[in-house]
Specification:
The chain is an alpha/beta fold and about 240 residues long. It folds into two domains: about 1-30 and about 80-120 and about 165-240, TPP-binding domain (Rossmann fold, 3-Layer(aba) Sandwich), CATH 3.40.50; about 30-70 and about 120-160, 2-Layer Sandwich (SIR2/SIRT2 'Small Domain'), CATH 3.30.1600.10. Helices cover about 35% and strands about 15% of the residues. Strand 4 and strand 5 form a beta hairpin. The structure holds zinc ion.
Length: about 240
Amino acid sequence: MVPALEKIIAESDRIAFFGGAGVSTESGIPDFRSVDGLYHQKYDYPPETILSHTFWEENPEEFYRFYRDKLIVKGAKPNAAHLRLAKLEREGRLKAIVTQNIDGLHQAAGSKTVYELHGSTLRNYCVKCGAFYDVDFIANSTGVPRCPKCGGIVKPDVVLYEEGLDEEVLSGAVSAIRKADTLIIGGTSLVVYPAAGLIRYFRGRHLVVINMQPTGADAQADLCIAKPIGQVLSEDVLLED
Ligand SMILES: [Zn+2]
């Protein structure tokens, strides 16, 4: 708990939260963009190449091998940050979460209004007939997952590189940020576009950044907190300022 942040939260009733990978690292979900020696040992391409639409089309076996190995995380649970944000929504202070994460942990924590800019690993669809499949279907498949009904490829509802963001999700996110009185940016260095460009729609009173590394929004922020976000949003521990 950070007193300066708690004061801002107490004064706000239309908070929007904009989050990235750092929100989920405390749940044991690694940021696939962070430098990770494992990629170089096991894969011939960088993650940005493998997770592109072209690669999915041309090298589906390798795509799904990487996807099952790196993007599906079994047994992850919401952490103190997810839980506090869900509580702020229940209390009527927070109106929406905009996330770049694809792990569904905000909903698992109880959040209702969540704009998932990059989709979710929990949803998967047959590209031919549109049938829905859950994450276990992909996790338990081998090779290229095929629809049992029609034989089409089952594709994760995750926005790959080269693919555009979903229009409805995007406009919902823009509207929530535009109407917010406080915008809390957390666990993201704001380097992934177009998602990171959304914060320019914010017109409210308080901009807060919670991130271990500096971000492009620090200069405009009222408050920058360089501490783990679960710790910052937790109500249990009083941190010294
Ligand atoms: Zn099908």
